[in-house]
């Protein structure tokens, strides 16, 4: 895992960098943003609109600032509530133009207490608890207005002062300054002071109410231009002839503003009252950015009248157009910004794409590098595989050449065998006709003849098989009547069938069925199938041959009532190398394989239906017509028919008829030892029985289950068995007998043609005592039998506690031998059991107490208990000699209940105590 990580480390690093870059592009968008709240006391007059416009113009240069604006409509209560709203919006700084000083002082303090800086503009609050103040010196403005008036109307006259909102600081201060200036000239008096609340309409109403007083008035000072205009209108209404000076404050530029009023002559003069918007925003940003700022900022004023109003208007117009320029530039800038932003976005996207392509490029490079490595390895592996393939081809060529050479050798040898076999057969046939010789050794001559024919038949089959399978024999088919062909073929079998008491019948569906086939080859195939059927069928059984058309085919069925086959054998019987352990006598041979090859060459099929014990049916299917055959496969003048082969199978079958059924000898127990021979080849069985009957009591069988039954019943001294026998193989018989206590001691010789080392090992695994391969010499077999019986006897005496029987009891009857064998086995098995008694023995071998006593006394010369004691002491002496057990251990091993009793008994028998006996031996 680590290796993978470090291998891919560059990719991981690039990915991290890439995503870092992408993220940084995204997050660098917003920083240093400020929120400024502006609480305006009233917003519906030109002066305030100019103020707000100035602020917004300034703010347009600072896009990082969020600006929240609320106006209170000249109501102090509303303004207080609005300040709270701004606090809730989490403003960083408050700009406030308080409606009235008194009611808004606490509000400003509250904001300051929250750590939010406050800039008070235009109107003041009580005290100086704010961050900065921006306004004008309103006392000075009032004073300037008073001075201007006194210059205008001289030292004599009556003046009306129209004040702003009662509690607002400009109204208070302007009043103070005006009074100061008026008081300086002795003849001027403020005839009347009224409050117009900064508004034209209020002023008009007030003055209308007191219009009579206006008649004696020489000049009017209004605290702002709106109220001055109102005064002019009322004056004009009531006294149109009266052109007294009216002075206002603000001198706002813009349509209908103070400058226009002066210019138009509606009012006499106006004092400039700056709107502070730009200053307020600049100071706010200084505060927010922590830069130095002035706490008290008072802007000065000048008087605008007919003498300078034109210049002022021009200046104002210029400023306004500059402002417009600024706006349009600002707009341009904004557009540029948008373009810049989109370009920035495109740039970011390009950077991201670049980074990604760098990452993926690197990945591709790494993968390509890996790929190249893998390809290199693959190429190397391919090369290795190619070399190995070539080696394999070479080896298989060599193997094929070797196989071919061996097959040629095998064919040659097989050919070679034909000559000597024919040379054996001719004189033997002559001998078989000679009655003199027949009377001397008829059986043996016939056996030689029979087996020579059989051997010749096998040789011929082998050569045919070789010809068809290996050399690619091409059939020579011609159209023939299959029905008459089979009838002719079956003819010679009829006599044989009669002798064997087998019902042989031919059941053709039609008289004539024309089929293309190779006369010689089909002859061999069907003969083999018929011979095979005869091998399995018993006396009283039947073999039926059916021929019938089946659509575009013809079917030949050979049905027998024989012993049938196991399911597992059905698929294997056509395999020439298959040898079932329990194949029939003579096995399946290669006859069936040959038949199958021949049928296949005819583009036909061969099938078997069989059930164990219920017989078998071989079904041959051949195609009708000749379309399935090539020209080469058809018999023509150029392809003359070869001579028909010898009918060796028939000869073999005839020779089988000569075998004499052997009778099991009734008499046995005559000889010292007995043998059981298990062999299904009648000739070999005959031969063995004849050869061995001189010395041994011989009994025999050709079947596995019967062998087991006989072994258990007779308990022979030795068993000779073939391995390939019907139903149960020799090995299976051996395994069964060796696992049975009663028969496990019987030596078994496996007499078999299976000579490969694997077969020998599997025989040994089945616990056979000796493995003798065919062919064998009878004298060798006899010697082996003698040795095995002798060794078993020695073993019995030396390695067990068996007691030698009195010499007169050697020739025992079979029943007695079985009883003694059972008795001895049961005793041996229970020797260590100190409670083992006569009752147990009777129960285990199934005879009465009386019978047991009588038999044992007569066979051994001892009572049962004496016999038991004798066996125990004999085994004890063996154990003392051969095992490293102590006396106590031996005591219990041989079924004594106490060591002292054991010692006494042992000494009585052998003259020494067990320990003396042991030391004496050593
Ligand atoms: C505008 C205004 C001005 C005056 C100022 C005093 O609302 O009435 O005309 O100069 O307020 O605060």
The CATH architecture assignment of the domain at 463-657 turns out to be 2-Layer Sandwich
List the ions, cofactors and other small molecules found in this model: beta-D-fructofuranose
- Termini Cα gap: 70 Å
Over the alpha carbons, how many angstroms does the gyration radius reach? 69 Å
DSSP strand content: 5-15%
Q: What is the number of helices? A: 31
Q: Tell me about the biggest sheet?
A: 6 strands, parallel
CATH topology (level 3) name of the domain at 463-657: Heat Shock Protein 90
Low-confidence stretches: 1-6, 25-30, 643-650
Overall average pLDDT: 85
For the biggest β-sheet, the strand order reads 2-1-3-4-5-11
Structural class: alpha/beta
The global form is elongated
* Structure summary, number of beta strands: 24
Approximately how much helix is present in the residues?
Answer: 40-55%
User: What is the CATH class of the domain at 463-657?
Assistant: Alpha Beta
CATH H-tier superfamily of the domain at 463-657: Histidine kinase-like ATPase, C-terminal domain
Quickly describe the structure.
This protein is of the alpha/beta class and 922 residues long.
What would you say this structure looks like, in words?
- By secondary structure, the protein is of the alpha/beta class.
- Among the domains are: 137-272 and 301-310, Response regulator (Rossmann fold); 463-657, Histidine kinase-like ATPase, C-terminal domain (Heat Shock Protein 90, 2-Layer Sandwich); 660-798, 3-Layer(aba) Sandwich (Rossmann fold); 814-921, Arc Repressor Mutant, subunit A.
- Helix content is 55%, strand content 14%.
- It has 31 helices and 24 strands.
- The protein has a six-stranded parallel β-sheet, with helices on both faces.
- Helix 20 (682-692) links the parallel strand 20 (674-678) and strand 21 (697-701).
- Helix 6 (138-153) packs parallel to helix 7 (169-184), helix 10 (258-264) runs antiparallel to helix 12 (309-433) and helix 21 (704-714) runs parallel beside helix 22.
- The longest helix has 125 residues, at 309-433.
- It is elongated, with a radius of gyration of 69 Å.
- 33% of the residues are buried.
- The structure holds beta-D-fructofuranose.
- Beta-D-fructofuranose is lined by residues 42, 45, 47-48, 122-123, 164, 168, 170, 198, 224, 249-250, 273.
């Amino acid at each position: 895992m680590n290796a993978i990580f470090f291998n891919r480390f560059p990719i991981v690093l690039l990915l991290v960098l890439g995503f870092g870059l992408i993220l940084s592009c995204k997050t660098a968008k917003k920083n240093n943003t400020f929120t400024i709240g502006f609480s305006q006391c009233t917003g519906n007059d030109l002066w305030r609109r100019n103020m707000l416009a100035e602020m917004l113009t300034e703010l347009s240069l600072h896009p990082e600032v969020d600006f929240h604006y609320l106006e209170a409509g000249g109501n102090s209560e509303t303004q207080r509530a609005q300040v709270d709203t701004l606090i809730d919006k989490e403003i960083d700084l408050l700009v406030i133009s308080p409606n009235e000083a008194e009611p808004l002082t606490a509000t400003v303090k509250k904001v300051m207490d929250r750590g939010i800086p406050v800039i008070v503009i235009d109107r003041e609050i009580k005290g100086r608890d704010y961050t900065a103040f921006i306004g004008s010196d309103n006392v000075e403005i009032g004073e300037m207005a008073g001075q201007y008036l006194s210059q205008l109307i001289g030292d004599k006259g009556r003046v009306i002062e129209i004040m702003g909102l009662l509690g607002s600081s400009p109204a208070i201060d302007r009043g103070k300054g005006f009074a100061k200036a008026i008081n300086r000239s002795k003849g001027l008096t403020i005839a009347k002071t009224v409050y117009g609340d900064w508004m034209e309409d209020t002023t008009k109403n007030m003055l209308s109410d007191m219009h009579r007083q206006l008649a004696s008035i020489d000049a009017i000072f209004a605290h702002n231009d709106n109220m001055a205009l109102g005064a002019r209108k009322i004056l004009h209404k009531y006294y149109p002839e009266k052109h007294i000076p009216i002075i206002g404050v603000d001198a706002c530029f813009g349509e209908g503003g103070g400058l226009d009023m002066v210019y138009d002559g509606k009012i006499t003069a106006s004092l400039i009252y700056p709107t502070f918007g730009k200053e307020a925003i600049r100071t706010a940003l200084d505060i927010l950015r922590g830069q130095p700022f002035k706490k008290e900022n008072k802007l000065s004023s000048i008087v605008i009248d007919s003498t300078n109003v034109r210049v002022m208007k021009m200046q104002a117009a210029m400023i306004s157009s500059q402002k417009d320029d600024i706006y349009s530039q600002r707009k341009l800038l904004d557009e540029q910004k948008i373009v810049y932003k989109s370009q920035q976005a495109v740039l970011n996207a390009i950077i991201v794409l670049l980074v990604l392509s760098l990452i993926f490029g690197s990945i591709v490079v790494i993968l390509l590098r890996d790929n190249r490595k893998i390809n290199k390895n693959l190429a190397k592996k391919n090369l290795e595989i190619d070399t190995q393939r070539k080696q394999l081809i070479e080896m298989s060529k060599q193997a094929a050449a070797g196989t071919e050479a061996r097959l040629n050798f095998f064919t040659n040898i097989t050919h070679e065998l034909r000559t000597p076999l024919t040379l054996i057969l001719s004189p033997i046939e002559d001998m078989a006709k000679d009655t003199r010789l027949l009377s001397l050794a008829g059986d043996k001559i016939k056996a030689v003849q029979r087996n020579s024919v059989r051997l010749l038949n096998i040789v011929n089959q082998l050569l045919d098989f070789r010809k068809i399978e290996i050399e690619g024999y091409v059939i020579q088919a011609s159209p023939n009547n299959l029905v008459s062909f089979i009838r002719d073929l079956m003819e010679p079998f009829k006599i044989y069938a009669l002798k064997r008491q087998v019902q042989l019948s031919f059941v053709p569906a039609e008289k004539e069925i024309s089929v293309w086939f190779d006369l010689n080859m089909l002859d061999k195939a069907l003969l083999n199938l018929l011979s095979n059927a005869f091998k399995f069928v018993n006396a009283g059984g039947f073999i039926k041959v059916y021929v019938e058309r089946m659509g575009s085919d013809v079917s030949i069925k050979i049905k027998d009532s024989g012993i049938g086959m196991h399911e597992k054998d059905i698929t294997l019987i056509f395999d020439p190398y298959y040898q079932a352990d329990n194949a029939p006598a003579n096995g399946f041979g290669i006859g069936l394989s040959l038949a199958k090859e021949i049928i296949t060459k005819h583009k036909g099929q061969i099938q078997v239906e069989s059930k164990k014990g219920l017989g078998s049916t071989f079904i041959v299917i051949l195609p009708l017509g000749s379309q399935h055959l090539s020209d080469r496969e058809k018999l023509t003048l150029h392809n003359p028919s070869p001579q028909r082969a010898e009918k060796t199978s028939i000869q073999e079958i005839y020779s089988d008829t000569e075998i004499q059924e052997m009778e099991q000898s009734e008499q046995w127990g005559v000889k010292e030892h007995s043998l059981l021979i298990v062999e299904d080849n009648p000739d070999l069985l005959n031969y063995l029985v004849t050869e061995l009957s001189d010395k041994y009591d011989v009994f025999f069988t050709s079947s596995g289950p019967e062998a087991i039954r006989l072994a258990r019943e007779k308990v022979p001294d030795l068993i000779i068995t073939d391995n390939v026998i019907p139903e149960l193989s020799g090995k299976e018989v051996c395994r069964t007998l060796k696992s049975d206590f009663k028969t496990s001691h019987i030596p078994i010789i496996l007499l078999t043609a299976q000579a490969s080392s694997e077969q020998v090992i599997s025989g040994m695994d089945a616990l056979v005592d000796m493995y003798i391969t065919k062919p064998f010499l009878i004298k060798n077999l006899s010697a082996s039998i003698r040795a095995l019986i002798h060794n078993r006897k020695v073993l019995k005496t030396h390695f067990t506690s068996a007691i030698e029987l009195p010499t007169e009891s050697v020739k025992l009857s079979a029943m007695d031998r079985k009883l003694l064998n059972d008795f001895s086995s049961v005793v041996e098995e229970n020797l260590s059991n100190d409670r083992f008694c006569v009752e147990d023995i009777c129960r285990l071998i199934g005879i009465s107490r009386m019978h047991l006593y009588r038999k044992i006394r007569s066979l051994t010369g001892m009572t049962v208990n004496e016999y038991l004691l004798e066996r125990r002491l004999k085994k004890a002496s063996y154990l003392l000699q051969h095992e490293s057990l102590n006396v106590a251990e031996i005591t219990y091993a041989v079924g004594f209940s106490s060591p002292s009793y054991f010692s006494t008994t042992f000494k009585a028998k052998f003259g020494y105590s067990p320990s003396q006996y042991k030391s004496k031996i050593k």
